[in-house]
Specification:
Largest sheet: 8 strands, antiparallel, barrel
Distance between the termini: 73 Å
Oligomer: single chain
Mean pLDDT: 82
Helix content: 10-25%
Number of strands: 12
Strand order of the largest sheet: 3-4-5-6-7-8-9-12
Number of helices: 7
Structural class: alpha+beta
Shape: globular
């Protein structure tokens, strides 16, 4: 009995921090880790700026009908979030002026996606990090127009940008089929390139503090990412 008592104390004290399950207000206990809940195919169904204004139409329209994500257990993310990331990084001031150019550049109808990764502690976490890879190495006149209108010098065109957001808030509803991401004052950013060895090099083409504070609500899908995208392009919203 003494051995069992001592072992119980040791086991309890060795539990990882934040390793307790979530208890919802209606006494439903959630024992699934946050990372596991994130895995799957998701679509943004609501988007708001820091004032609570609906901004979904900023990056989702009849030409870009859906902002979707596929998250897998190896931390890989495939997404149609190129316009959303452009809005997050460069802001709303000139976004409306160049939205048509962005629509032309980010065309996901051929099922070629933006590559990204996500990182999260293996616990019941309330924040995570994600990094989007925006390829500009094959820069076109369209992309040149986009970046120049944001005031970015053309010397930064011939590279690939890695836009990382850290401490992004995350939460779920009680059935884990709706996920909310919050980019707020707790969120920090890093924008990098990579050198010939694959090491990060800081990219100073745009101030890291100017990202938009936003809240996104994502709804889980029962179909593959390809199916979700194909269906969205075949049935776009009305202009």
């Amino acid at each position: 009995m003494l051995f069992i008592f001592v072992f119980s104390i040791i086991f309890t004290n060795c539990k990882k921090e934040n390793d307790d399950p979530i208890l919802y207000s209606n006494n439903i206990i959630d024992t699934i880790s946050t990372k596991t809940k994130m895995e799957g195919v998701w679509v943004i169904t609501e988007a708001y700026d820091s004032a609570g204004t609906n901004i979904l139409s900023k990056f989702q329209n009849h030409l870009l009908p859906v902002t979707a994500f596929s998250l897998t257990s190896d931390n890989v993310m495939l997404t149609t979030a190129g316009p959303m990331v452009t809005y997050l990084v460069f802001g709303a001031s000139k976004y409306t002026q160049i939205q048509a150019s962005i629509n032309q550049y980010f065309n996901y109808s051929n099922l070629t996606y933006t590559n990204a990764e996500f990182y999260i502690a293996d616990t019941y976490a309330t924040s995570f990090a994600l990094e989007f890879k925006l390829e500009t190495v094959c820069a076109t006149a369209t992309l040149s127009e986009i970046l120049s209108l944001f005031g970015i010098d053309v010397q930064w065109l011939n590279t690939t940008l890695y836009n990382k957001f850290m401490n992004v808030g995350i939460s779920f509803n009680e059935t884990n089929n709706r996920m909310t991401w919050v980019f707020d004052n707790q969120t920090t950013t890093r924008y990098n390139m990579k050198d010939q060895y694959g090491d990060y090099v800081f990219w100073n083409g745009w101030p890291i503090s100017k990202f938009q504070k936003c809240r996104f609500v994502l709804t889980k899908q029962q179909y593959s990412l390809d199916s979700v995208i194909t269906n969205a392009y075949n049935n776009p919203p009305v202009k």
